[in-house]
Amino acid sequence: MYKVLVANRDEYDTKGIEWLLRSSMPSWQVETAEGETKMIEKLESFQPDLLILELDMIDESSYGSFIKTIQIIRPDLIALTMEATFSQAKRAIDLGVADLILKPISADTLLKSARRIHRLAQLNGRFSEQKPKMEAEEGCHYQDLFLESPASAKSFVTIGIKAENPSELPKLFSFLKGYSFQKAVRSFILSDMVFLVAEQTSFAWKEESIRFMRDWQETSTVQIAISIYTGQEGYSTIRSHYLANRKLMELTFYAGFNQVLEGNSLPKWLSIDPFLTPDEQSTWIDFLNQSDIEGIKDWFHQEFLILAEPYPDPGLIRIRLTSILAQIRRHMKTFRLSGEKIEKEYLRLFQTILYSPLIYRMIKEMIRFISFIFETIRSDKKLKLDLAERVLFFLETNYWDPTVSLEKAAEYADRNANYISSVLAKKCGKSFRELLNETRIRQSAKLLLESEMSIKEIASICGFSNQQYFNKVFSKLKGMPPNQFRKSMQKASV
Predict the structure, then answer these.
(1) pTM exceeds 0.70
(2) Which of 154, 413, 429, 470 is the most buried (most CB within 10 A)?
(3) Does residue 128 form part of some domain?
(4) Does residue 422 share a domain with residue 398?
């Protein structure tokens, strides 16, 4: 029987998901757990095949014990979250979830996801109505891939075969089972790759792998990548070889499929800042304001498509792309872009950033979506901002520039400066300078709370050329100087 555990903080959501699964899939055994402690206890006692959990349930203090538990039990994961933010995306990536679903939950979306995971588990041999026993022939076994065992006295080589589309793995495994390798291999099918173990000899495994790939391509259009790991000191167990092959396979994120990756050492990722710098934010604001799709293409090419080893950590690249997506989201809100179609496209792009195995495909989809946004704005007259809104948009996107002035806003809006002043006074009840200072102070207050930058740095970043003037304006609008504001907010959050 297929076992599902639903773990959610909201009792209403928990009962709703439980009822949905029980009524739609009566052959499944569905249990629930409310709260983090009960979830971990239930994981250990119930040992589900599928865990549906709310990401925010996992507290940082018990994150380690949760990770250890799921590594032992190895359920498939569906994560639920309220917001499509980079932090939630990073968390989902780290957990290795099969799907990330945004709340409020669509019953159809959840059922489709659960059924797809169940079907893939059956095809991969991870689950059946009668749970199969692991093969017990002499040599290594499935459990050796996931549990540390004594180092092998024999030397061996391991090979990973990964399909670009994981749903094709059963077909790939079937092809492999009937394939005539020149040397004996022991094969295992997993959720993300087929794993082979063979005795290490002077045999040319790379040439053999290339032959296998060529023969596979004659029967299928699905692209594959093959990793060959010969091992090094400290990597003499089946599990360590399995983890090493997974690490080698991560290079396909940059290099693509249809190739053989061979090595006895593992790739080392370059650490990068996943967030846009203030200068990069400014560049992106200009790109979006000017609908500069060619500039965006050039930026993506320079930033992501001409990389060389050591490559940046793929997880950090995904976060960096969600940071860019946040800039796009703000641009969409400025022009009040909404509706089922555009939201569907936005969420599809978000899912692509989370799960696509290839960086070039992510970039291609981002360029396609941005072009779609630009075309929507150009073609829909209802999205045109009135004069006051255009000036406010100008302030929101240029407050950081110390030379911002009413004259520059007038040039941007293509109107007379005196006319703009009268429009702002009538619609907003404030002058251009008052609105500019409010925008700058609002942004500086956010930086005081969320960063460790000095007050001088924050003043400069927010467009104030003089720190004393910044302190004066901040005190007037917030009722206290910036250093006192930061201290009071830090105390309030403790």
Answers:
(1) no
(2) 470
(3) no
(4) yes
Residue 104 belongs to a domain with what CATH number?
A: 3.40.50.2300
The verdict on 104 and 9 lying in the same domain is yes
Full pLDDT tens readout for the chain, 494 residues: 789 999 887 776 788 888 888 887 877 899 998 878 888 888 888 899 999 988 888 877 777 778 888 888 889 999 888 877 777 777 788 788 888 888 878 888 888 888 888 877 776 666 544 433 333 334 678 888 888 777 665 778 999 999 998 889 999 998 988 888 888 899 999 988 999 998 877 888 999 999 999 999 988 999 999 999 987 654 578 888 999 999 999 999 998 999 999 887 788 899 898 888 888 888 898 898 888 999 999 999 999 988 888 899 999 999 999 999 998 998 888 777 888 889 999 999 999 999 999 999 999 999 999 999 998 887 765 556 678 888 888 888 888 889 999 999 988 887 889 999 999 999 999 999 999 999 999 999 988 988 888 899 899 989 998 999 999 999 999 999 999 999 888 777 65
Q: Both tokens of residue 259?
A: 């190739």
For residue 127, give both structure tokens.
Answer: 């689950």
483 and 400, same structural domain?
yes
Provide the CA 288 distance to its chain's centre, in angstroms.
23
* 245 and 148 in a common domain: yes
